[in-house]
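Good morning C.,

I know you're traveling, so I'll keep this short. The sequence:
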Amino acid sequence: MKTYKKLLLIIVALVFTFAGCKKYEDGPTISLLPKKWRVDNTWKIDKVLENGQDVTSAYNAILPGYTMEMKKDNTYTDNYTGGSASTGKWAFDSKKESITMTPDGGSSATTLKILKLKNSEMWLTDNDPNTPTEIHYVSSK
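The tokens, ready to paste straight into the viewer:
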């Protein structure tokens, strides 16, 4: 019985410890998969918010059938129906709180803050103070 109480106490302590260790605003609290593995996916847009307003239908009209394939080798490919694919490199910042995407061909990089990173969901937001844009991606696999 004494061992059972010790085990229960350890489990309760771990739950409270990890409850305060949330890396991203919207989760997850804890994951067994490394962050790079969670990013490795083919993503499609689920929702887009600009200044808190849902503008998903406008994005879907501009980029029909949009997908973004991100790989563990830090490369990505953007594609949409009727357009040509674009490629580039992605990287975490030092704290793995943001992702920087640099298109091939010398275009400027874009840094997006990670709000949620699961193996089937990824929420990113830009740093534009005038028109903050939050994009919710879901796995298309």
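Safe travels,
E.
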